[in-house]
Write a structure and sequence with these properties.
Blueprint: H1 8-20, H2 22-26, H3 36-42, H4 47-59, H5 67-79, H6 84-96, H7 100-113, H8 118-131, H9 134-147, H10 151-162, H11 166-177, H12 183-193, H13 196-205, H14 209-214, H15 217-227, H16 231-240, E1 267-268, E2 274-281, E3 284-291, E4 297-304, E5 309-319, E6 326-331, E7 340-343, E8 351-358, E9 365-371, E10 380-391
Antiparallel strand pairs: 1-4, 2-3, 3-10, 4-9, 5-8, 5-10, 6-7, 6-9
Helix pairs in contact: 1-8, 3-4, 4-5, 5-6, 6-7, 7-8, 8-9, 9-10, 9-11, 10-12, 11-13, 12-15, 13-15, 13-16, 15-16
Length: 392
Amino acid sequence: MRAAVIQRGAIVAGALLASAAVLQAGIAQRVSLADPALAARIAPGNARIAVTAANSAITRGADVADPDVQGLVVAALKRDTTVTAAIELRAVTLGVKGEPRREAQLFGLSSTISRRSLPTRLWLIQRSVERGDVAGALHDFDVALRTSAAAPPILFPVLADATSDVTLIGPIAQMLDQPSDWRLMFLNFALAHGDARSIGETVVRMRDHAFVKANGLDRVLIARLVELRSFAFAGRVRDAFSEGTRSPLIADGGFADPSAGYPFGWQLTDRGDVGAERAFAGGQTVLSYRAEPGRGGQVAAQLLLLAPGRYRLATRTASASDTRPYWTLTCGEQRSAALIRLDLPTQDRATSEANLTIPSGCAGQWLTLTLQPGGAAGGQTGTVASVSISRL
């Protein structure tokens, strides 16, 4: 694991900040007095109150090696050698003084006493990072996230960033395959705030497809990738979680399968003035469209992943409209004119078709059906029986 992924400064800073916040959360019996230093003087035999006073001093700006702070730490350890907060403060001080062996011994002792202390886990993670021990670091990530409610804000961003290292994607995916209370929270965080491509590579490597699909993580990831116009990768994610079925060039071209979800299935407009929906007419499923007088616009859209080459686009009406709705196919990566416009026939049960070329650099294409504003008093209605595309 590269030190650049999890920097020592960030981990040490996290441990020191934990002295003021996280460590206090781990104290079994937090003193509620307004003046912890006074409380330590009032109850000199209470080790935990002494640690609280030390943490309070650090919060106010005292150095961890300050004699007064260390006096409280030493006093706490003399009274109770099992208080991990005091052990950690003493270990940090020894590290600052250049005594790494004794520092390691004390953090090891803290880990033996309790698995729940976050500063100890942070230190162990950093030590594994410095040794190139990926398995050890990820083990302590998992322990910290399982045992400390304060761990996610500190470790989620670090773990999300770690997926940018290609050597870590496999091990992180294996860790995420193990059931835990935190993995769904992490993946939701990473998909919302991390790099969608590196997180996507990690999700694709996971073996627990049932978990990914049950929580809709594949759909969220695809949506993020489409926003980034990373269409080919979005297709990889779709295929990885499609249970081995081969996707057709157009999904649900006969409008009979509402399970085909957008963007690799139809997104249908449903507004008061214009819209489209699946329907059953004349013994077949159709796409029924409507628009009020003078209204129009896009009513259906789907993302295609056609390789460069020559194709034929064809469509068939069930019942036609004289306003001539039309299909367009446009490159998703480019803000350019449509590659093709294909008007629907003006006759019932008629077919129209046209040839087109998908150029290089056009990995994703938007197929859309648009209604032109009509002037009829009753508005416009019609049905499309099918739309298909075939390679020439």
